[in-house]
Design brief:
The complex is a heterodimer of chains A (about 160) and B (about 210). Chain A is mainly α. Helix content of chain A is about 75%, strand content about 0%. The longest helix of chain B has 23 residues. Classes of the chains: A mainly alpha (about 160), B mainly alpha (about 210).
Chain lengths: ~160, ~210
Amino acid sequence: MTCEKIQEILPAYQDGELSAENEQAVKTHLEGCEVCRREANLLSASWEMLGEMKPIAPSPDFEARFWARLRQEESNQTGWRSWLNWEPLTPWAVSLAGIVVIWMIGVTGGLILFKNQSNRAAASFNERSVLTSPYPQNSIEQIFMESQKILKEKNT
Amino acid sequence: MLGSGMPDLIKDNQLLKEFGDSDESLMILFRQDNEDAFRILFDRYCARIINFAFRFLNSKEDAEDITQEVFVRIYRKKLIYNPKSPFRPWLYSIVSHLVSNKLRDKKRHPHHSLDWTATDEEGNEFSVEPIEMGTSSESVQSERTELTRSVQSAVQALPQNQRAAVLLAKFEGLSYEEIAAAMGLSLSSVTSLLFRARQTLKEALSEFSQKT
């Protein structure tokens, strides 16, 4: 491996995140390369320095405040508030609800589409009948003539 | 309150006998409405989360507020937790989400304490941003305090996602894979974030690294 590649994986090497094979490759390289060794030392020194960020302690009343807040919020969850704050309990419940909603949207959409197409077909049939038939609309003669015409069209 | 010892209720639980008091088994117990398990998790993580949030928000009050919110969410959403997946990435994904929201709020309302403060060893806050390394020579400060300030400044200067990856790796001991899960990123993105962050930190702290 080149020095550039080694330096690219040095942080992962120092964090113990490399495969055994790559780890060995870096180790061997570092033993023989002064430049990369120096880079590794600078990296690990700056990483260790982060330990200078001393932790802060929670406020003395933090725990008490938390439990008070939790109890308060829990008591607010009763009655109609709990309904308003209802959250789905489990991921599978959410998935199931989603599937039902999508199915309902699909069925409703399909029905609307089917109804529109039927209306359009009926309108077109009526229009054609009115324009071409010598008989009054919806009379037995007119319907008979139209059905004969349709049968003829189909046979040809 | 639990404090140090493990309550008998939990000690006797078969699950803990099998898997020990891992975070995951405590969450499984908590899902079964065992509130003691939740209390142990709270004791185990509250100070850690306060510190994690503090290193982003620079306000102890905000950090404590976020921490409370985190545990309230865990309490309420215990059933959403998948017991088969590790607890810490899930926990820190909640923390990161809330911290990001808070930072966004702070940007929208900058009058709400956007001062960059840090703490000394006693936890007392002091401002770090206005102090340049070269201009502090007038005041007599120990080298240690100077180093602490420089480290704080260097970490504060990192972009938000790099800072999160650094804090999770360094202070929370999360593996790259766990960090990826907590931050919703790929493993290669985390590797890249940490590489860039560590290069930046190395440059920023080179003055001190040379001395070691």
